[in-house]
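Internal ticket #5521
Category: modeling
Description: The requester needs a full-assembly model to guide mutagenesis choices. All entity lines are attached below as received. Residue total reported by intake: 231.
Assigned to: D.W.
Attached entities:
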Amino acid sequence: MPNKFRRHKKRFRLPRDFILPVKQSKLIEETDKLTRHSFPLSDNERITYVYSRNKRNKITEIISVIYDLFIQGEWVTVIYYDSAHGSLHRHETISFEDRRDITTEENVKKKGTRERWLTWAIKDIQKRSSYYKKLFLKRSNTRIDKLN
Amino acid sequence: MTKQIQTSKNLKLSAEVAEYITKNPELVEDFGKDLSFVVFPSDDKQLQKANVKLANELKKEGKNVVKVHQTKDKKTPWKFSYL
């Protein structure tokens, strides 16, 4: 079709008060399988990841990727990642005494599939676990010289 | 082997295994949903020894321990078996 005709073609527009359905983020269905895999690194450190998969074996939600330390007879979470609100974010536990956590999306992968987020979170913990541990122990008032 | 060396070696290996599992979930499907994976590299006897101890402790705690053996096959670099 020549350009002069195309220019005058009436475009279809939706009326202003037309309501479009909002695309809902997928909730975890009952049929989704919850998987929990733990990797002990030594007798006082471990990485655990929990995620859900659908029937097609596709990851639908990263429940958490957790880095734990065994301190004074109990497992304490130092940091964990989750994708609860549709994006990946990190939770850092304040200290051994104060178990509340600080949530951040700073320097956290934002694009990609759930599979990519999961492997990214695991690799991030792999690279920076000693840094997270050091900061956590520094913030803790209890003198934790030796992790028992 | 010190704990620090064991931790850093296991960190590296576990990230590789985790990536492999997420790409091939069917390989561990039959083992269950709540699992503890202990990695056994093919060329590090010291780490193998330390991880045997670690796996036995976990077993005593009543956990489902899965041994992850490193192979030299590039297509299937890891093999899984119950402890």
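Resolution: model delivered.
Comment from assignee: Residues 29-139 of chain A form one domain.
Ticket closed.
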